[in-house]
Amino acid sequence: MLETTEIDITFEEGGDHTEARAVLTLRGATFTGTGRARRNPTDPELPLVGEELATARALSDLAHKLVDAAAEAISEREGRPAHLVV
In CATH, what class is 7-78? Predict the structure, then answer.
């Protein structure tokens, strides 16, 4: 069985920072990860770099939240704490 889903990523940029928000809906549950990138004032203005870094951090945050949700589901089913390693 093949299933697909999408992750929506939005950006908010201002001055020397970029914020990214990654939203995933999986089997009715919505998960959100956030990430932020801040440009050193002495660095050149390269919006793509800020977007890439903020996105990477948002996806990392999202991944950790998914692992936490999986551990919680296992714990509920098994009746004992589950410790998952990523």
Answer: alpha beta
Single-letter residue type at 46: L
Taking the domains of the chain in order of start, what are their residue ranges?
7-78
SS (H, E, C) the chain: CCCCCCEEEEEEEECCEEEEEEEEEECCEEEEEEEEEECCCCCCCCHHHHHHHHHHHHHHHHHHHHHHHHHHHHHHHHCCCCCCCC
Tokens 């069985």, residue located: 1
pTM higher than the cut 0.90: no
pLDDT for 65-77, tens place per residue? 999 999 999 999 9
Cβ atoms within 10 Å of 22's Cβ, excluding its own: 24
